[in-house]
Amino acid sequence: MISFFKKTAKEESDYLRSVPLVADMHSHVLPGIDDGAKNLEQSLDLIKELYDMGYRKLTATPHIMGDFYKNTPATIHEKLIKVQLAVNQRKWNIEIKAAAEYYLDEWFMEKLRREEPLLTFGDGYVLFETSYINQPVQLQEAIFLLKSQNYKPVLAHPERYIYLHDNFNKLKEIYEMGVFLQINISSLSGYYSIPAQMVAEKLIDNRMVHFAGTDCHSMKHIQSLQATQTKKYYARLLTLELLNNTL
Question: Is position 4 within any domain?
Fold first, then answer.
């Protein structure tokens, strides 16, 4: 590790190209279903950009939120089929799948308590997010219910939650509860905030990152992802045993 961090900028750039991420498990590229791509044309533009960056499998994860995006497996599947057909017509060598990004609200808790089937990616992974400001009182119950139903909970972008910025011990506690942690790649260039960048870097330093997601919604995220690939901590991220490419 010591010798790695003494690499020149060119050597680090060469290293990045030699260890690409080829699978993403967090994006909003399905059209007209949440705050991501607005239509099929935008979906295809985003997918083509991610394809050109080296991705060969994308798992779209539309928001499911009780107050705003009451998506269902049926509505998500309908959009997925449209995108898959369009991608196949263009003969792009990229696989498109879909799961969801569940918001930890009472609507989600009711799904868990009723043991309603959830949308997953990979080997039973469920992506969920929380309020950015306040730690949800149901967090531990949600994790318990997910694990008791044989799901593998994945906390989306933990570095972005303000209630965790000054409480790294709480992050460790969540990690030690068996929750998989997924950071947003663009956090490493300060795209969301400097505190979010610092938490993401600390997670990498502590080797507490399981997945790296694009969380791609729009072209501005594509530009940020491209810029982040030149950053030192992106190179460090790729030295971890990330689970992306196992998908």
Answer: no
Residue 53 token pair: 């960056």
Confidence class of residue 16 from pLDDT cuts 50, 70 and 90?
very low
CB 36 within 8 A of CB 62: yes
56 within domain boundaries? yes
Is residue 157 included in any domain, yes or no?
Answer: yes
Do 151 and 120 meet the contact criterion of CB atoms below 8 Å apart?
A: yes
CA 75/CA 57 separation, integer angstroms: 21
Sign of the dihedral through C-alpha 155, 159, 162, 165: positive
Domain that holds residue 107: 22-239
pLDDT digits (tens, 9 = 90+) for 183-223: 999 999 999 999 999 999 999 999 999 999 999 999 999 99
DSSP state of 161: -
Q: Is residue 191 part of a domain?
A: yes
CATH label of the domain that carries residue 166: 3.20.20.140
